Amino acid sequence: MARAGLTAERVTLAGAELADEVGLGQVTMSQVARRLAVKDASLYTHVRSLEDLRGRIALLAADEKTIRIAEATSGRAGKDALVAFADAWREYAHTHPGRYMATQTPIRIDPELAAKAAGPRRAVELTYGMLRGYGLTEPDLTDAVRLLRSTFHGFVALEAAGGFAHERSPQQSWVRALDALHTLLEHWPPSQEGDSA
Question: Model pTM?
């Protein structure tokens, strides 16, 4: 019988908290059970497996990160929106490193859970909406989304790994990187697709 008060949401949150403390890859069902003071078997009433738990953590994190980005960018446009978006992304990665990694790691997620999750869809809407403010259309929108994700994730991953040992602060480089991205987005190069060689 399931322990009273234990739910899939509580198990997911416990796993997310643990991921922030020890890293997503170090989370085990036994550790989560100990954190909740239950037997391992009790967890399987609420989550099917460790992979299912990681998928739930990823969806939780996507919701949390998207809410922060939405709040940060509300009422902003152009460079103000870009900086607010990027800063909220980076702050979430710093505050919740394990949860953040769940959003950047290929994890098989239950299709039913994924269909109900608003976070991933809202993240796409926010990103594309911000970039449309720069006058971009497809296929440039998709290319720009990939550029932003690569830049933001690359920066925070290197920063978390201690990869910026130079005396210049990472914050100074972050500000300049966002300046450069803004300039690039304002002067996006025309696509050469379809042009004859």
Answer: 0.90
